[in-house]
Amino acid sequence: MPVPNYAFRVQTNLSLGADISSGPNSGAVYATWNDARAGYTDVLLSESPDGLLWSDPISITGAPPGTQNFFPSITVSPFAGTIRVIYYSNRIDGFLLDVFVAESFDGGASFSNRRITTTSFNPNGNSPVPTVLIGDYITAATFAPDNLAAVWMATTPPTGKLDVYYGT
């Protein structure tokens, strides 16, 4: 799936998470994906109490319409049931990318978003030629007692070379 204004590919991969905590939403299943039905890419989430019936999808980024939000990866805390979805976004600069996390502490009823990266990066690195791959490796996990572990690829200045990054 092309992302408007970029040359790299974005796969429309579904990311699934399940609440195995002893909290009030235990057993719930969550699905998240990037979707371009509005003419720009956004991260949507649907939830199911049993894996059979699913809610209507909702946007979880809180990003302005027209911004590009993609490559979501979900983790659901086995300790507290906290839902966290990390994703790339161009909401700060309009072209440069950052990684954000959408977090829900109430079983997906509401989400707050925060930036994880400290420096925006050009997906093309220092190359004047648009890249077709940006290292589409991004993943999230939860570690005790209820903390995010996020890993992603970026071409952060000053080198502009693709590398692996970690944030919480």
Task: Provide the descriptors you would attach to this structure in a database record.
mainly beta, 39% strand, four-stranded antiparallel sheet, 168 residues, 11 strands
Task: Describe this protein's structure.
The chain is mainly beta. It contains no helices and eleven strands. It has strands spanning 15-18, 29-35, 42-48, 58-59, 69-76, 83-89, 98-104, 112-115, 138-143, 147-154, 163-167. The strands form three sheets. A four-stranded antiparallel beta sheet has the order 1-2-3-4, with no helix packed on it. Strands 5-6-7-8 form a four-stranded antiparallel beta sheet, with no helix packed on it. A hairpin with a 3-residue loop joins strand 9 and strand 10. The radius of gyration is 16 Å and the shape is globular. It starts with 14 loop residues before the first strand and ends with a strand. The mean pLDDT is 93.
How does the helix and strand content classify structurally? mainly beta
Strand content: 35-45%
Mean pLDDT: 93
Distance between the termini: 28 Å
Q: Count every helix, treating DSSP H or I runs of 4 or more residues as helices.
A: 0
Strand order of the largest sheet: 1-2-3-4
| Uncertain residue ranges | none
Instruction: Spell out the helices and strands N to C.
Output: EEEEEEEEEEE
Task: Give me the count of strands.
Answer: 11
Shape: globular
Main β-sheet description: 4 strands, antiparallel
Helix content: under 10%
The Cα radius of gyration reads 16 Å
